[in-house]
Write a structure and sequence with these properties.
- This protein is mostly beta strands.
- It has two helices and twelve strands, in the order ββββααββββββββ.
- Helices cover about 10% and strands about 40% of the residues.
């Protein structure tokens, strides 16, 4: 009920200081006055305080169900399933290859958007699909970089409208190893023996 305390301290305003104090702890229950009793009460014995082990063992378990949003997001992201293989897509409106269909009749058009050679490094294949009629012949598909470097993608066979290149077959194509330039920004369809006026339409390039 009674405490005697001595303190020494130092601060920039008062410098060093010493304090001696005495404290008296008195229980005060205002609600006792409603029944005509004294509001002053004696402190409870120590074994009836919250330190009472028997009472603590009989209490229900208290759990903190609140979890900060950052913790929830971290746990959900750590336990999520692996993402599906990503893709990188660009297109080009190739259009007509020419009115004659003569050898080496070709068209060069821009890719939308251009594709960074650095971005292609994480992929293992490229498939180019032409939306319109299939050719009756054989032709080459090439990509051009921003500095004019030309890379052969593959051959469009007669009766097909797709061409695929893989990293295993041409590793330098993915990531720009040995290829001059930093982006692929154009596509060439080089007609060797297509029928006259074949319309390639939209060419969709998908790196996977």
């Amino acid at each position: 009920m009674f405490t005697l305390r001595y303190e020494y301290g130092h601060d920039r305003i008062n410098g060093a200081y010493n304090t001696v104090g005495g404290f008296v702890t008195v229980g005060f229950s205002l609600e006792n006055m409603l029944s005509g009793g004294s509001p002053f009460t004696l402190p409870e014995p120590v074994f009836k305080s919250p330190r009472d082990l028997r009472r603590l063992l009989g209490l229900k378990v208290k759990r903190n169900w609140y979890q900060p949003a950052a913790v929830v997001l971290a746990r959900s992201s750590a336990n999520q399933s692996p993402p599906a293989p990503s893709t990188l897509t660009t297109t080009a409106n190739v259009g007509n290859l020419g009115p004659t269909g003569s050898p080496n009749d070709n068209v060069t058009v821009s890719l939308t958007p251009s594709v960074s050679l650095v971005d292609t490094a994480g992929f293992s294949s490229l498939t180019i699909t032409f939306s319109n009629a299939k050719p009756l012949g054989v032709g080459f598909v090439r990509l051009i970089t921003d500095t004019g470097g030309i890379t052969n993608v593959g051959v469009i066979l007669s009766g097909t409208n797709t061409v695929t290149i893989t990293k295993a077959a041409n590793p330098t194509f993915f990531g720009g190893g040995g290829i001059t330039g930093t982006i692929y920004n154009q596509i060439i369809v080089d007609n060797l023996d297509f029928i006259a006026g074949w319309n390639a339409g939209i060419a969709t390039l998908v790196w996977q």
